[in-house]
Amino acid sequence: MRSLRRVLSGVRRYVRELTDESAYDRYVAHVRREHPDARVPSRRDFERMRTDRQEQDPRQGFRCC
Questions:
Q1: What is 13-54 written as a DSSP string?
Q2: C-alpha closest to that of 27 among 42, 6, 15
Q3: Is residue 31 part of a domain?
Q4: Rounded to two decimals, what is the model's pTM?
Q5: Is residue 20 part of a domain?
Q6: Boundaries of domain holding 11
């Protein structure tokens, strides 16, 4: 049972990294570590900032719609 949980946990972690679902978690860790006095934006605000940045810089990826 433990090995199944470990495998499923690894698959979940892999999929989160592959789809960049973990980007917010990494960002929050970065803000708390590098800027402890700064306000951590909500997930919604983070996604808006990320989308705006991607649309302004074509090197960040293609967005069709």
A1: HHHHHHTTTTHHHHHHHHHHHH-TTSPPPPHHHHHHHHHHHH
A2: 42
A3: yes
A4: 0.68
A5: yes
A6: 2-57
